[in-house]
Amino acid sequence: VVNASRVSSFFNFWRTTVLTYPDDDAVEMYATGSEADTLRSSVIFDRSVVFFGDHQQYAISGKVPLTGSTATIMQSSAFGDAATVRPVALNDLLFFVKEGKKYASVFEIAVGSVEDTSNSNEITRQLNDYIQGTGIEAIGLSVPTSLLFRTTTRNVLYSYAFMNADGQRVFDSWSRWT
Q1: pLDDT band, residue 117 (cuts 50/70/90)
Q2: N or C: more exposed end of the chain, with fewer CB within 10 A?
């Protein structure tokens, strides 16, 4: 369940009336299909708020005003075990970590060429056992465009540097710093 306060009245999460739903009233939303899921973190991506749960990901569209009549949370993807590390929005990409039994995998979601679609891609698919341990933290840097990633493995920092041009990946590189 996600609660949004009244317009211009922060921390006021109570509706003014039960008979009507004014556009500036507080909003309470529920993601259909999330009965057994727990929302762990969120990030703003492509004008929307994307929530990461233990089993799935959900989105509140930022392309329409949020009112009681337009409030919906839609399932956006179904990557399980992707809520341990807070996702990172960097330029037009969203990075998140999916936990495995011994190794972590890093995925990116790109804004799609068609409105309201996204394309996901595992950026560690050729590195099956490269990122050891459970993910703890990830941060993004815009110059140079890179992702820094830390796991439970002591004294190890992973970095993923990349460069995009004309919507294509022209360079990418993983490094492990010990």
Answers
A1: low
A2: C
